[in-house]
Specification:
Blueprint: H1 2-18, E1 21-24, E2 28-34, E3 37-42, E4 45-48, E5 54-61, E6 65-74, E7 80-91, H2 96-104, H3 109-128, H4 133-136, H5 140-158, E8 160-172, H6 174-253, H7 259-276, H8 288-309
Antiparallel strand pairs: 1-4, 2-3, 2-5, 6-7, 7-8
Length: 310
């Protein structure tokens, strides 16, 4: 006790000396006030301050911060839309004026969060209120750009900067989701029916084309076959006529009757009928008048061929 009474001023000096130094962690900025008024800022590391006069009013983090948002908006066609999003923001920079804004604009971080969340929600609600329910799902990027454009100025006044806004989930009321599912299902059925119709049309068209081509090929083959058969018959008749003419000439040179040739041909024809008839019934006029009539016809054909040859 006697030591304390004698050397109290030394202890006071030691505590005063130790109170002259303060540490600011990395990623933080210290705001110093004196007699309640802003004086200066402290950078990360060991800093000097006047003991008993200067005080650290607040330590401000310059690192990125995030907050999750869940809120509801109403479209122009009165559909409820539920959003789940993540907001990423940070102090704009480390300049002294910016740090002063961050330190003194709001009483606490709670007030900052409330203002920031309400501002973002208000911007998104204003955007959604001008759109229809069917458009919302395709407008994520447009919503983010609209919100950043609307709140960047306000955040700059507060000393903050919006880094990113991610809209993770957009949902609707159960009735709307079910109706959207039915619309998608009906559109899929419609597309499937159209595809099946196109496939059937292509199949039918190709089948008709193939059938038409087959008919054309068959008709062309039949035409060529008929032409060849006609040429064959014509050649056969020509050869028969030549043979008969030659045989008749030889018979005349031998002073023989040419009717013998015709009679022989008649007999050969009857024989051929009997040999290759295969049970078919063939009626022939076997009388003398019938034979004479047939031979006259053959003779007339021979005379006609001779006149053509001359």
């Amino acid at each position: 006790m006697e030591f304390l009474r004698d050397y109290w001023w030394i202890i006071l000096i030691v505590f005063a000396f130790l109170g002259c130094f303060v540490t600011v962690n990395q990623g933080m900025i210290g705001v110093v006030t004196m007699f309640g008024k802003y004086r200066r800022i402290m950078r990360p590391g060991l800093n000097f301050k006047l003991p008993f006069f200067e005080q650290i009013y607040k330590k401000i983090s310059i690192q990125n911060r995030s907050v999750e948002l869940e809120f509801q908006a109403i479209t122009v066609d009165q559909a409820n839309v539920y959003f789940k999003s993540m907001l990423l923001y940070s102090v704009q920079n480390e300049q002294e004026e910016t740090i002063k804004k961050v330190a003194f604009k709001f009483i606490s971080d709670k007030d900052l969060m409330q203002s920031l969340v309400r501002t973002v929600e208000g911007s998104i609600r204003a955007f959604v209120a001008s759109k229809r329910q069917a458009e919302i799902l395709t407008l994520r990027k447009e919503i983010v750009l609209f919100v950043k454009e609307q709140i960047d100025f306000a955040l700059e006044e507060w000393g903050y900067h919006l880094i990113d806004l991610q809209i993770n989930d957009i949902t609707f009321d159960t009735a709307i989701i079910e109706s959207m599912s039915r619309v998608v299902a009906s559109n899929n059925l419609k597309a499937a029916a159209e595809n099946e119709g196109q496939a059937l049309l292509i199949t039918k068209t190709k089948a008709a084309e193939a059938e038409g081509n087959a008919i054309k090929i068959a008709a062309e083959a039949e035409r060529q076959a008929a032409q060849l058969r006609g040429q064959g018959v014509a050649l056969f008749r020509e050869e028969v006529a030549k043979g008969m003419s030659q045989a008749a000439s030889e018979m005349k040179q031998a002073n023989l009757d040419t009717n013998v040739i015709l009679f022989s041909m008649w007999v050969e024809a009857v024989k051929n009928f009997a040999e290759y008839g295969r049970g078919n019934v063939i009626f022939l006029d076997g009388s003398t008048e019938g034979m004479e009539k047939t031979m006259k016809q053959i003779m007339a054909m021979t005379v006609m061929e001779d006149s053509k040859a001359k």
